[in-house]
Amino acid sequence: MKNIFLLAAILLFLAACVPIKAVRYLIPDLGDSAKFENVTIQKSTTPFYFKSNLGNSTYYSLKSHLDSSLVGTKTNVFLVIKNDSIIYQYLSEGNTLAVRQPSFSMAKSFVGTLVGMSVDRGEIKSTEELVIDYLPELAKNDERFNRLTIQHVLDMRSGFDFKERSFSPFSQITRSYYGADLKKIVNKLKMKNEPGKVFEYQSINTQVLAFILEKATGKGLQELMQERLWKPLGAESEALWSLDKADHIKAFCCISATALDYAKIGRLYLNRGNWEGKQLISKKWVDITTNPDTLTKLRYKNQFWATRDFKFFKDSVSAVSSLDKEGLKYPVERNPDGRYFYAKKVYDYKAQGMFGQSVYINPQNKVIIVRLGDRQKKLNFHGFVQDVGRSVK
């Protein structure tokens, strides 16, 4: 009997641990917001509505192509918006534009935008400031924190010793996602690379930015989101943002909102930070974030992804010659199949999340595309969305 009570006590203890929740659910899914505690981001009292231009014969071929291509792809919502008008709309059975969908890592672009707003206000003096100016407790963990800037963190070039991809219920990323105290995880961060040297996508970077924002402004992340983005952007619906067990916002993921409201951050950047005549974020910040040369070279800037477009050659000499003709100074890389390539200059960019979640912005064509849905294998959605956006003239 004593052993039974002991076993029961151990099981109760383990059931309260984050890894047990991770074992239970293991892989994230579209219903995760219901598994976590959330805070509500209030909608705007003056909502912004995109106009409808559905049925326009100009886009008949686009509709025909997308209607057939999206079948069987587990897409819940696919919107194409041009010049503030919805020109294409796909909704899976049972979905409406009022249904909230998970952001996954698209949330990172919202956090990056909030950092830019804080810089504009002088709350953060410069992205070249050291992280330890705001989070001094990290200095003792590794001497390389003395050279880690906010910009390094924004661009995923921090050098943190943090493994992003792992299916272990005990890994850092799994514990972070399933509710461990994120402040404790950040406080224990160590380094494996010199800051600024290596690009490595790590969600913990965005969580560090969140704690910097809260320290710099004296406000919670949910307040900043509501006051500076969600309400000013004319959000039509309330959003949810998930919490860890210590009630910290999971900044690197876990917003749940509607497709139309996600699209509004795309419109903000498309209009260089201006929203209905008011400059919500400086043109300077938007221009730095979306600079084509920077995006092409770095792939990632201020928590936004560049699109990828490659030009291939049989040898490196041909690749260098082509770069010279175009007046570009991009690195030449070698493909596993032996071909050489470089990334062509890109102008479009996106907020991106797992399962193909995307808010894509094409400033040349004045196009925003939102794709939300589940994991599937039929389409590479990041490439597919890019191709669609470039085709809409």
UniProtKB/TrEMBL annotation:
Q: What domain of life?
A: Bacteria
Keyword Cell membrane found: no
Per UniProt, residues of the Beta-lactamase-related domain are: 101-377
Q: Keywords, A to Z?
A: Hydrolase
Per the UniProt entry, the Enzyme Commission number(s) are: 3.-.-.-
MF-aspect GO terms: hydrolase activity
Q: Can you name this protein? A: Serine hydrolase domain-containing protein
